[in-house]
Amino acid sequence: MSASRFTAASLAALTALSLASCSAGQGGSRDQVRAVGSSTVYPFAKAVAESLARSDASIKSPIIESTGTGAGMKLFCAGVGAQHPDIENASRRMKPSEFEDCQKNGVKEIVEVQVGLDGVAFGEANGGIGIPLTPVDVYKALAKVPFGKPNTAVTWKDVNPALPAEKILVYGPPSTSGTRDALKELILVKGCETDPAMKALKDSDKKKHEAICGEVREDGAYVDAGENDNLIVQKIEANPKAIGVFGFSYLEENTDKLKGLPMTGVMPTYATIADFTYPGARPLYIYVKKAHLKAISGLQPYVTEWSKLWGKNGVLAKAGMVVAPEAVLAASAKAVTDMPLLDGAQLK
Known about the structure:
15 helices, D-Maltodextrin-Binding Protein, domain 2, 9-stranded mixed β-sheet, 2 domains, alpha/beta, 9 strands
């Protein structure tokens, strides 16, 4: 046996031993898939788990935890073994720094699968005042230091004279959430970079650009409502003058209570997210720990179950997920079958 083959075989054996010993430490072999991550992906992941349990009684329904994308990445990347999750649900793509953490901790074999689309939706109660939003107005309202100056805006009229003189009150996700990351990248940074000087700052001083364009104010105008998007729905339902930020699927699920707000004149709808005309459209992913595929019972069937449900007339579309374009679904189906490894070069 060659040295390289011996090394590969040894690594595989050590991984299996690690999984076995960790399982034993938990009081027996783990016979359930464990997934962590995005609160937006959570209901879809639960639907896939329930579908798998119904279709194959021999497989225990996977355990799905709503931790937020960022917190989930930390758990996922902490190591290989039964005490670590098998899957990370993500409402944004893995960051290079997260990939590096995974590699550093021995999570070397990661498979990325895009499962669908979603949108960072802005909504209010059905009796709300209907503020027409733009990325620059949202940035001026929510940034900690818009264009480098402390935020003193109290009302929407302070942000834009064409908007009503209503107090700025926005309930949204915490910094650990992929929805918060998407709010930053798709809306706040876009608003910030309407100023050419801010756009140029990205190249000259990336850290300063991050602070000016991405940090959210902490004086009460933006309220961190935690990882529970249902709580945001309840908060803005109780206050018709408040605005909520959440995944589009939650807006869809609560049309009896909420209505979407336009962003640059485009309403958040299934169609505008599917064709990316809505500024807040984003892809959704699952990340699979390939080293766990043979060791954790039900992991491959669970990943395969996603591919059975993400089509136009599938369970996930009925649950509010926006179906990805055909070419994306075809590539994702191939990824489920072939399990190609993420090498990090694709990540920005």
